[in-house]
């Protein structure tokens, strides 16, 4: 479905960008400006039937089109989203998220999301009906980027929600990731520490703040160790001490080793020094691993009943397994 908005003369008494107009006048500040910019970037918002940029200045009689995903089929009852429950008990659900699965609904995709499936699952199972969708996101305690695969933890009731949430706040919950990165870092293991904030030139992206001051960003710590090298790639294991937006992706971009096929942070571009010798191999790797190579494989939390740590491990998904197998054979 498409929603068309026709610009009225009285609104344009001053110059205004398309993202700011939608944020203030159409969505009434109920949706963040950053989410609006992401949908402009993803071509879910058009200007005069053409793709546009977030900073485009509107003119009188312009037409803005918002594209909604309105698949009316009941995608949840037969679970064509193929959501996999990795672990479940009376207080907790842990989802093994597949790559490409959107977590939160947005006006580019209102139906085919993990939250939609979770809402159906809750109602169908008649559990934790005391949750409010807006306030508690149906118990979802954290998030993964669309193309990041791996473990997501969900609370079934409010006491569990706050018990686990406190572990995120106090950084006692443990999360580990596998990633395939470009090149081979100088140190086999290291700790990356700095401040991460939003990129002022592109609000979709995050960046390490050069001034390294707290007021410009949030302190971020990533530990890593190299597990295996493949001439021009490294398979690494990361442990997060903090949980900032895009943290691993930003940190490895910063040290000059972006995650393979990370379109937002340059990992989808072949470094010049590799083009002549490895172009064929790399292009094939792009085909078998068509998303950024990041997987949340390890989750350890303190159980609300036993007070002991519960540890869950997810195997590498098929696309990353195939990619690593190819590198072992060819590089």
Q: Give a short account of the largest sheet.
A: 10 strands, mixed
Architecture of the largest domain in CATH?
2-Layer Sandwich
First-last Cα distance? 47 Å
Q: In total, how many domains does the architecture comprise?
A: 3
The geometry reads as globular
Helix content: 25-40%
Taking pLDDT < 50 over at least 5 consecutive residues as the criterion, the unreliable ranges are 70-78
Instruction: Please state the CA-atom Rg, rounded to the nearest Å.
Output: 22 Å
Q: What average pLDDT do the residues reach?
A: 86
Count of helix runs: 8
CATH topology of the largest domain: Pseudouridine synthase
Order of H and E elements: EHHEEEEEHHEHEEEEEHHEEH
The CATH class of the largest domain is Alpha Beta
| Residues in β-strands, percent | 25-35%
Question: What is the fourth-level CATH superfamily of the largest domain?
Answer: Pseudouridine synthase
- Count of distinct strands: 14
Please give a structural write-up.
- Helix content is 25%, strand content 27%.
- Strand 13 and strand 14 (309-313) form a beta hairpin.
- It folds into 3 domains: 2-67, Structural Genomics Hypothetical 15.5 Kd Protein In mrcA-pckA Intergenic Region, Chain A (Roll), CATH 3.10.290.10; 68-170, Pseudouridine synthase (2-Layer Sandwich); 176-296 and 320-330, Pseudouridine synthase (2-Layer Sandwich).
- The N and C termini lie far apart (47 Å).
- The chain has helices spanning 18-26, 33-41, 114-125, 133-136, 158-169, 247-254, 272-288, 318-330; strands at residues 2-6, 45-47, 50-51, 63-67, 84-88, 92-97, 149-155, 174-182, 189-198, 206-208, 218-229, 233-240, 294-302, 309-313.
- Strands 5, 6, 7, 8, 9, 10, 11, 12, 13 and 14 form a 10-stranded mixed sheet that branches. A 4-stranded antiparallel sheet has the order 1-4-2-3.
